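TASK: fixed-backbone design
INPUT:
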């Protein structure tokens, strides 16, 4: 790969996640709802996803 080629983003340890909104299942309310990463500011958050897979975990 040439030195000037654009590399896809690859997160590293301690990188901050970009702000986003995603649809997620709320097991307490038993419904889908929008999750805003910003609403978790100052809290520990674990993010995981499976591209192209809608298997409920």
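OUTPUT:
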């Amino acid at each position: 790969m040439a030195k000037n080629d654009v590399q896809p983003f690859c997160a590293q340890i301690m990188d901050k996640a970009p702000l986003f909104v995603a649809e997620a299942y709320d097991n307490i309310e038993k419904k889908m709802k929008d999750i805003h990463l910003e609403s978790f500011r100052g809290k520990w958050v674990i993010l995981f996803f499976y591209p192209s897979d809608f298997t409920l975990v």
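COMMENT: The two ends are 38 Å apart (CA to CA).
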